[in-house]
Design brief:
2 helices; Alpha-Beta Plaits; 60 residues; single chain; binds iron/sulfur cluster; 25% helix; two-stranded antiparallel ribbon
């Protein structure tokens, strides 16, 4: 499963990383989220984070 964060859409709110910190992490210097480990959590947990992103920047 490819998990992609659109860096142009991401507003750096930190929601995804706070929900699933095993999968997402914040790049504080750049101000957006990155994928740390796409297999770091269940598909359900990842899906919840995708749906919680306010700008729909995460896709699979
Ligand atoms: S929830 Fe969306 S906008 Fe917020 S940091 Fe994650 S990818 Fe970026």
């Amino acid at each position: 499963m490819a998990l992609i964060i659109d860096e142009n859409k991401c507003i750096g709110c930190g929601v995804c990383a706070s929900m699933v910190d095993t999968v997402f992490e914040m790049n504080d210097e750049e101000g957006f989220a990155t994928v740390k480990d796409p297999k770091g959590a269940s598909n359900e947990e990842i899906q919840e984070a995708i749906e919680a992103c306010p700008v729909e920047a995460i896709s699979i």
